[in-house]
Write a structure and sequence with these properties.
single chain, about 375 residues, alpha/beta, TIM Barrel, 12 helices, 14 strands, about 30% helix, globular
Length: about 375
C-alpha cells in the first residue's frame, strides 16, 4: 500500500506516509514547559513518518488554556529537548508547530492586562475559558505597521529555540483562526494598508513569517499548515479557492518541505463540498509542487485512496494517534484500534495520554 512507502519531504526521508497531526493536549507544566510525561507521549508515537508537535506559542502575548506549551523561554527549550531526544532515540522525526493566537488569546492571562493583538479590531466569535470561567473573546487591538516586524521576530526567535531543542524542522501554523489565519482571511482582516485588502497583501504576513523561519532552519525543513474551511470562530473568507491558490503559489516559490492542508474531500469519493465552502485541494495541488499533506477525519482506507489518486502525498492523523500510539503497525494489521477518550483530550494527567495500550499488549488475553 502507498501509505507504507517512503516519502522525501525536504531534507528528510520519511519511512511511511502516516503522520501524526499537531494535537493540543495541555500536559505541559504551569510555565508551559513540556514534562517528562510529554516526552514519553511523543516517544510512544515515534513510528509516525513524521510527528508534528502540538502548537507551541511563540510569545507571552499569545496564551490560552493552562498547561499548553510554549517555545519562548529557556525552560521551554529544555523541556522540548527532552522530547526530541526521546523521539530520536526511538528512530523518529519531529517538527515543532509554531503559532501566535492573536485575537484568540485569553485576555485574563495576557501579562499586564494587555489586549489581544490582531490584524483588525474584530473579535472572534465564541467564548474562551478564562481565569474565572468562560468569557467572550475580547475585541483585539489592531497591530500597528511598525509592530508587525516585532511579531515576525518572535517567530524567528521561537524557531531558533526549536533548533536549540533539537527539532528536525518547523511547521508554521497558518490555520484554525489564529494570528496568521486572521491576516489571511477577509472575515478577520479589515486592514487597508499593505497587509490588507487584496489577497497578495493578506498573504504578506504569512510569507514574512515563513522567510524568517526559513532563515533559521532552511526551506527544506519548514512546512506550513492551512485550514480553508475552519470558520467556527468567524475567521472565514469570501473566496477561499482564490486565496489558498495564491498562497500556495507563493509558498511554492520558497521550495518548502511541505504544505499541510486541512481538507478531507477526495477527488474520487466526494459527494459534497466540505463544511465551509468549495474544496481547494485541487487548486492547491496545482499551485504547490512540493509534498502535500492532508488532514481531516481520514481512515486508513481513505488515506490510501487520496495518496494513490495523486491528490496528496501523505495524511496526518489526529484522534487515531491519540488513542493508538502504534498506529503504523495497527494500519499494517488493519486494526484493532483503541477508542479515544474525548474527556481526556485537552486536560488531565497520564490517563488518556500515555496509558493507551500498544497492540501486542492489547492483544494479550486477560
Amino acid at each position: 500500500m502507498k501509505i507504507f512507502t517512503p516519502l522525501q519531504i525536504g531534507a528528510l526521508t520519511l519511512p511511511n506516509r502516516i503522520l501524526m497531526a499537531p494535537l493540543a493536549r495541555a500536559r505541559s507544566d504551569e510555565h508551559r514547559a513540556p514534562t517528562a510525561m510529554v516526552a514519553e507521549y511523543y516517544a510512544q508515537r515515534a513510528d509516525a513518518g513524521l510527528i508534528i508537535t502540538e502548537a507551541s506559542t511563540v510569545a507571552p502575548m499569545s496564551v490560552s488554556r493552562p498547561y499548553a506549551s510554549g517555545i519562548f523561554l529557556d525552560r521551554h527549550v529544555e523541556g522540548w529537548r527532552r522530547v526530541t531526544e526521546s523521539v530520536h532515540a526511538k528512530g523518529g522525526r519531529i517538527f515543532q508547530q509554531l503559532y501566535h493566537l492573536g485575537r484568540k488569546s485569553d485576555p485574563s492571562r495576557i501579562p499586564d492586562g494587555a489586549q489581544p493583538l490582531a490584524p483588525s479590531a474584530v473579535a472572534a466569535r465564541g467564548k474562551i475559558m478564562g481565569l474565572n470561567g468562560p468569557i467572550e473573546f475580547a475585541v483585539p487591538r489592531p497591530l500597528a505597521l511598525d509592530e508587525i516586524p516585532g511579531v515576525v521576530a518572535e517567530f524567528r526567535a521561537a524557531a531558533q529555540n526549536a533548533q536549540r531543542a533539537g527539532m528536525d524542522g518547523i511547521e508554521i501554523h497558518g490555520a484554525n483562526g489564529y494570528l496568521i489565519d486572521q491576516f489571511l482571511r477577509d472575515g478577520a482582516n479589515r486592514r487597508d494598508d499593505r497587509y490588507g485588502g487584496a489577497v497578495d497583501n493578506r498573504v504578506r504576513f504569512l510569507l514574512e513569517v515563513v522567510d524568517a523561519v526559513v532563515d533559521v532552519f532552511g526551506a527544506d525543513r519548514v512546512g506550513v499548515r492551512v485550514s480553508p474551511h475552519a470558520r467556527h470562530d468567524g475567521t472565514a473568507d469570501s473566496d477561499p479557492v482564490s486565496l489558498y491558490g495564491i498562497a500556495a503559489a507563493a509558498l511554492n516559490e520558497r521550495n518548502l518541505a511541505y504544505l499541510h492542508l486541512v481538507e478531507s474531500v477526495l477527488p474520487a469519493t466526494a459527494q459534497s463540498p466540505p463544511p465551509g465552502g468549495a474544496p481547494v485541494m485541487a487548486s492547491v495541488r496545482r499551485a504547490f509542487r512540493g509534498p502535500l499533506i492532508v488532514n481531516g477525519a481520514y481512515t486508513r482506507e481513505l488515506a490510501e485512496e487520496v495518496i494513490a489518486s495523486g491528490a496528496a502525498d501523505a495524511v496526518a492523523f489526529g484522534a487515531l494517534y491519540i488513542a493508538n500510539p502504534d498506529l503504523v503497525e495497527r494500519f499494517r494489521r488493519d486494526g484493532p484500534y483503541n477508542p479515544p477518550d474525548q474527556t481526556t483530550f485537552h486536560n488531565g494527567g497520564a490517563k488518556g495520554y500515555i496509558d493507551y495500550p500498544a497492540l501486542d499488549v492489547a492483544s494479550v488475553p486477560a
